[in-house]
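Hello again, I could really use a second opinion on something today. For a while now I've been wondering how a particular protein folds. Please have a think about how the structure follows from the sequence. Here's the protein in full, and shout if anything looks odd to you:

***
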Amino acid sequence: MAANGTGLQGPLAFVRSYVRFDEWFFSVVPLVLCAPVYGTLALRRAPGPDFPLNMLLFVLFVSVFLAFGYLINDYSDREEDLRAGKRKAVCLVPAPLTVAVLAALTLVGLLLAAAPASFSPTALALAAATYLLGASYSIPVLRLKERGVWGVVCSSFAQRGTPILVAGLLFDLPWVVTFDWVLLSFLNGLRYILVHQMMDRENDEITGTRTFARDHAVRSLRRGVDALLVIEVVLLVPSVLVPLWTVSPTAVASALFAYAIVTWLLVGVFVRVFGKRDVLYTFDLVPLEALLNVIVPCAGCLALGSFGPAYLLMAALFLLAGAPTLVSKCTNLRYAPAYVRGVVRRG
């Protein structure tokens, strides 16, 4: 672990590992932040002057909450992880200090969520419910992760659904828009956690941890993942394509065509060249990952670009944050010629 190094890089690397920053910042935060952006586009109204500041507070709230959620999960699972041979960063920190960090993350998150709403009781209550639901997945008293379907539903909704409910309140979004984005984000998270639990079945069997994936056949789980993917694609039409289409139909059509070609090539490379036929059920090439976490956020901010340079900056930041994902995925395009030659030969 880089945290053992010296200088600033060592402590920063340890903190990133401690709150598992890389596991949620690039795969959860961007899609959640799309809700207020596309909600504004859908309403065809200019964002208010306080929109950029509220977006900054909202991204900080989401980040602090997710850091809390992952940290409390690791703290609750310390003994199980050690039995499975997984020594996470939380095991290197005294327990009282981690408890203090969790308390601080809770307090800061509540303040960040309530500040844009002038500390209204509704905003505080909704933020508190978000934290409670996030903690219920792993804390010993409730531990929903071991209660079958409630575990996967709770985890996904806590991480990806309830923050958007907070956004609906802070940005005054219509309930239809809020519900649409809550559902899209929730189902996307549900697909991620099902895949994660499928991949973690062996460790869970070693530790005796009961999860939804352990209690169901792999074939049934895969069918569930397939169904969730189809529903997500359908939900993208009203939540993303329609608002963008009203801004620039040509740009949307061109981007969809380019994305379809690149996706076809990458899936072909993984299946035909690498021989990974279970590509939908691993994290090697997560379907829609780059689209939802990089392209959609960037496109939404670019569509708001006419309202001020702050939105162009937001688009650039999304692209910068998603660049490692795009580069890592597109690197495999170097094998595309071999895949295409194979298709031609078979044809």
Notes: The chain is about 70% helix and 0% strand.
